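pls ignore typos typing on phone
flavin-adenine dinucleotide + seq
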Amino acid sequence: MSTRAEQYVADVLAREQVSPHLVRLTLGGAGLTGFLSTGIADEWVGLVVPGQYQSRYYTVRSWDGAELVLDVVVHDVGLVTEWAKGDCVGDRVTLTEPKGSFAMPADAAWLLLVGDITALPAMARIAATHGGSVPTRIWAEVPDQPEHLAGYLPEGTDVAWLPLADETSRLAEVVDAIDWPEGDGYFWMAGESAQMRAIRKHLMRERKLPSTAYDVMGYWRAVAARQPRAVDPGPIWRAGKAAGKTDEQIWADYDRAREQVET
Ligand SMILES: Cc1cc2nc3c(=O)[nH]c(=O)nc-3n(C[C@H](O)[C@H](O)[C@H](O)COP(=O)(O)OP(=O)(O)OC[C@H]3O[C@@H](n4cnc5c(N)ncnc54)[C@H](O)[C@@H]3O)c2cc1C
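k done
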């Protein structure tokens, strides 16, 4: 039995500038035959672009059985950023098999989503998938004017657009100031890793949320050079649970693993 993870080759069929910092790539081709979505609303794939061997993770914005859409944030420098800024239509990329971690309990009374622009594709898909069944509120910290992103989220979404001033994320302060709804719900968040670490501690220590009530993921690390390869939290989570570790210990393992990964 092969234990090798599935990989897919895909062709870039179209490139569209959605906003100054967001580029939409539509992928397709015969290599995607057999791509099987997990159905999990924040599902992601690893993307390897031409001439590179390292992957970067991107949310599957949509998959209709033939075409797969990724929305890529173009920031200053980076493997994928620099490739996606150029004319990449016709290029061939590799995708790893999809994974997801959003796990809202069936009886959740509300859903809160917080993130920066890298989390926007996932928040849009989560809102489209679950927003109709449970009251949902989004806080999105973006470097672009909200009018550029009008229509990005499903119509009627309750969203607070937060400007990203001085390139400094203030999401930890935003979470501190949340007026939490009554009852038990689900909190999902993603963005820069250091902010996410602070927020996880706040949720565990101050709000005393059980681990089933939230999912907070570091999507990228603010480092001077290129980004270390992202680490899949799934195996670390399962190994930690099997070893009887607390959620806090497991997330500390995850953060350490990310820091140790070599570029
Ligand atoms: C599960 C998951 C899902 C994700 N989904 C998406 C998605 O849908 N869309 C998306 O755009 N990103 C998404 N990301 C984040 C994306 O993988 C990282 O931002 C990645 O580092 C970008 O790769 P790069 O090659 O452009 O830059 P890298 O080569 O990785 O980094 C180069 C430099 O840019 C800095 N940098 C990296 N990311 C950012 C950023 N976002 N803003 C400012 N500086 C940055 C780094 O600190 C480094 O100094 C996701 C990450 C995860 C883990």
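The mean pLDDT is 91. Residues 193-206 form the longest helix (14 residues). more later
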